[in-house]
Design a protein that fits this description.
Layout lengths: L1 E4 L5 H10 L4 E4 L7 H5 L3 E2 L3 H7 L2 E4 L4 H8 L14 E4 L5 H12 L4 E4 L2 E2 L2 H6 L2 E6 L2 H14 E8 L3 H29 L4 H10 L5 H12 L9 H17 L5 H15 L10 H9 L2
Helix pairs in contact: 8-10, 8-11, 8-12, 8-13, 9-10, 11-12
Length: 290
C-alpha cells in the first residue's frame, strides 16, 4: 500500500498519477473534501497521518511549508508514530535542507527510511507525469522509489545525502522566481515603449534568453489570467524566503534574489498572494502606467 498526505494543487495530481497506474493508495489531507475525487476513483481515506503510516509501506508527503510538514510528522497522531520499521517516507515538500536532515534523523530513530524529493514543475507537468525530482538520501532507497517516482516524473536526479534534494529545489526556485520577474519586467517595459504585447512576447521567446518556463507562462501574461494559479505568489515568496534563510546560515549573500523576493512580498501585501506568481507582470505594468 502507498500512502499520500497532502492533496493540494500538486499532491492531488501526483497521487492521481499513482492511482491511475493501478497503485493501491491510502490518502489523508487536512480537509477531506480535497481528497474526495481520489476517493471516488478508489483511494482509501485515512483519518490521520498516523493512520496512513500504519497502512502503507511507502508514504509520500506533499505539503505547503515546514510548519505543515511538522504538523503531519509529529504528535500523537503524527506520521512518525504510525510508520512501521523499515518503511520509506518520501517528502516532496519544499523546505530547507537542515529541516530535511532533521526529519531523516527522527525517522531513522524509528527505523524508518527517509528521502527528501521535492519537484520542479507545476500543475501541467504534474498531470502529465513530467515532473523532475531532486532527491536526497540513500542510493538504495532512491532505486526502490524510482518506479513510483517515474510514474509521476520524467527525470529522477539523485543529488546526494539527505538535505541535498531540498537544497537543489531552493536553488531551482530561486532562479525560477528571478526568471519570471525578469520576463514580467521586460514585457511591461516593452509595452511602455509602445511595442505590441503579443509580438513583444513572441520576440522574447524566440531569443536566446527564453527559459522553458516562460513558454508556459506566456499565456498568463497574454490573457491576464492570474487568479487561477499554477504556482501561487505565496509559494514562490515562501521558497525564496527559505533560500534567504539558508543563505544566511551559510554566510552567503543573495542580493538579486532578495530584491526579487521583496517584489513578490509586495504582491502578497496587496492581497495577491493566491494569484499566480506571473501576476508580477500586472503589478509592474500598473505601476509603470501611473
Amino acid at each position: 500500500m502507498i500512502g499520500f498526505i497532502g492533496i493540494g494543487i500538486m499532491g492531488s495530481r501526483m497521487a492521481g498519477r499513482l492511482l491511475a497506474a493501478g497503485k493501491p493508495l491510502v490518502v489523508h489531507n487536512r480537509t477531506k473534501e480535497k481528497a474526495d475525487p481520489l476517493i471516488g476513483k478508489g483511494a482509501k481515506w485515512a483519518d490521520s497521518p498516523r493512520a496512513v503510516g500504519e497502512q502503507a509501506d511507502i508514504v509520500f508527503t506533499m505539503l505547503a511549508d515546514p510548519e505543515a510538514v511538522d504538523a503531519v510528522a509529529y504528535g500523537e497522531n503524527g506520521l512518525l508514530n504510525g510508520l512501521n520499521p523499515g518503511s520509506l517516507w518520501i517528502d516532496s515538500s519544499t523546505i530547507n535542507p537542515a529541516h530535511s536532515v532533521r526529519l531523516a534523523k527522527d525517522a531513522a530513530e524509528k527505523n524508518v527510511r527517509f528521502l527528501d524529493a521535492p519537484v520542479a514543475g507545476s500543475t501541467g507537468p504534474a498531470e502529465k507525469g513530467e515532473l523532475i525530482f531532486f532527491v536526497g538520501g540513500s542510493a538504495k532507497d532512491v532505486e526502490e522509489a524510482r518506479p513510483l517516482l517515474s510514474i509521476m516524473g520524467k527525470d529522477i536526479q539523485h543529488k546526494g545525502a539527505n538535505g541535498q534534494g531540498t537544497a537543489m529545489k531552493l536553488v531551482n526556485n530561486l532562479m525560477l522566481g528571478q526568471t519570471v520577474a525578469a520576463f514580467s519586467e521586460a514585457v511591461a517595459f516593452g509595452e511602455s515603449l509602445g511595442l505590441d504585447k503579443k509580438g513583444l512576447i513572441h520576440s522574447l521567446l524566440e531569443g536566446p534568453t527564453a527559459a522553458p518556463i516562460l513558454h508556459f507562462k506566456q499565456h498568463k501574461v497574454l490573457d491576464g489570467d492570474f487568479e487561477k494559479a499554477d504556482f501561487k505568489v505565496v509559494s514562490i515568496y515562501k521558497d525564496m524566503e527559505l533560500a534567504a534563510e539558508e543563505a544566511y546560515t551559510h554566510n552567503f549573500a543573495l542580493p538579486i534574489s532578495n530584491t526579487v523576493k521583496s517584489l513578490y512580498g509586495l504582491l502578497k501585501q496587496k492581497g495577491m498572494g493566491e494569484y499566480d506568481f506571473a501576476s508580477l507582470y500586472k503589478f509592474l505594468k500598473n505601476d509603470s502606467n501611473r
